[in-house]
Write a structure and sequence with these properties.
Blueprint (H helix, E strand, L loop, with lengths): L14 H6 L1 H4 L5 H10 L1 E5 L5 H11 L3 E5 L24 H12 L4 E5 L8 H5 L4 E4 L4 H14 L3 E7 L2 E7 L12 H4 L11 H4 L3 H20 L8 E6 L4 E6 L46 E2 L1 H9 L3 E4 L3 H4 L8 E2 L2 H6 L8 E5 L4 H12 L3 E5 L2 H18 L1
Parallel strand pairs: 1-2, 1-4, 2-3, 4-5, 9-13, 10-11, 10-12, 12-13
Antiparallel strand pairs: 5-6, 6-7, 7-8
């Protein structure tokens, strides 16, 4: 259902702004009034990366009056594939600086307040205070929890999204929604600490175009809340599978009001596992607790080496540019996509699957086990293998 608008409108738009936003102002049910609400609105965007970048672009273009953009990072060349607010010339500069420039280019009336700082549980409430809506596009679950806790304390709606690999989720959390509406919080979708072990996008990748799609979706949710137009995603999770071109919607109910046998109504595990984005497992929300697949055996580096010596095949499913940096001696190289496309091409009765941190290996091993192969995973992947080797070298030096 539609909610009352969050923002009182400006008395009047300037003539240039009326011209610039003309296509909004002729929208049925939106019009000049909603546009004036946007002009009076203050949105805080936490994270100027894969989700924050398109959200800032969309909100500035929409005519939002004030944007507080919070990010402590500098632009890196590897950001440019998905963080569309930044340019090659921005590499090495503060990400929040891109927000100032791009908003001025799109909407001269939009004021950007850049905050180059790490948002923490200590400063989150202060940084977000005064915003009508908060958009979370951050890349660690610790930060997401801090943002959510501050929004719950302030009673401000939190527009939330996560993207990793080819999958995404988006929803709205709000601890103090309009009367007659049940509050929904981050903990209703992800239990505390649920995403702490999830890999980053640097480790498993993310489709850049999907970041644009989800960032624009988050901006749309903020616009709906500000103007009172449309039905926000509060109590609903939008689940996007870019590979299949499929979007699903599932209900999200507060954990406290569920019956003991009811699932949360959140998505079932996605085939893949944060940047926004890194840091959040897209496929492991609270709702999936009763639908988890068979657990694949996890081996330590020592156990994996023993299995190889006993005849098991070490199957490295990383991409060629990754394996070029080093592999376990004797490992068979076959990228994950090839394994998933045809698991039976792996001609071995016992396999230990290896990737960089373990998540891709988990997917490959599950596919191989479904095809009748005794597959396990090197827990922690090459990162764990390299740490183990480093520890062994240090022990040898001490000896």
């Amino acid at each position: 259902m539609a909610f009352p608008p969050l923002v009182e409108p400006l008395a009047e738009l300037s003539d240039p702004e009326r011209t610039r936003t003309a296509r909004h102002r002729v929208l049925a049910g939106f019009g000049d009034l909603a546009q004036r609400r946007l002009a009076a609105a203050h949105v805080a965007v936490v994270g100027a990366g894969g989700l924050g970048s398109p959200a800032v672009l969309a909100l500035a273009a929409a005519g939002v009056g004030t944007l507080t953009v919070i990010d402590d990072d500098l632009v890196e060349a590897s950001n440019l594939q998905r963080q569309v607010m930044h340019r090659v010339g921005d590499v090495g500069a503060a990400k929040v600086g891109s927000a100032v420039r791009i908003a001025a280019d799109l909407s001269p009336t939009t004021v950007v307040r850049p905050v180059q700082a790490v948002l923490t549980p200590v400063n989150a409430r202060e940084l977000l205070s005064g915003a009508h809506v908060v958009i979370d596009g951050t890349d660690t679950f610790e930060t997401r929890e801090a943002v959510a806790a501050a929004c719950e304390d302030l009673g401000v709606p939190l527009v939330w999204g996560v993207v990793q690999e080819f999958h995404a989720q988006a929803t709205v959390f709000w601890s103090a929604p309009p009367a007659g509406t049940v509050p929904v919080r981050l903990a209703d979708l992800y239990p505390p600490d649920a995403g702490r072990e999830a890999p980053s996008c640097a480790q498993v990748g993310v489709l850049g175009a999907l970041c644009l799609q989800v960032g624009a979706l988050l901006a749309t949710e903020a616009i709906k809340l500000i103007t009172g137009v449309g039905e926000p995603l509060l109590g609903r999770v939008l689940v996007i599978d870019a590979l299949r071109g499929r979007t699903d919607e599932v209900p999200l109910r507060p954990a406290a009001v569920r019956s003991p046998d009811a699932s949360a109504g959140a998505p079932a595990p996605a085939p893949a596992v944060a940047s926004g984005t890194p840091g959040v497992s897209v496929g492991s929300p609270r709702a999936a607790e009763n639908t988890r697949p068979e657990r694949v055996p996890q081996l330590t580096p020592g156990e994996a080496l023993a299995a190889q010596r006993a005849g098991a095949v070490l199957l490295d499913v990383r991409e060629p540019f990754e394996t070029a940096r080093g592999v376990i001696p004797g490992a068979v190289l076959l990228p994950l996509g090839d394994v998933l496309a045809e698991p039976r091409r792996v001609e071995a009765s016992r396999v230990v699957v290896v990737c960089q941190v373990g998540m891709r290996a988990q997917r490959a091993a599950a596919a191989l086990r479904a095809a009748g192969v005794d597959a396990s995973v090197l827990a922690g992947g090459m990162d764990a293998w390299n740490r183990d080797a480093a520890d062994a070298d240090r022990a040898a030096v001490r000896a």
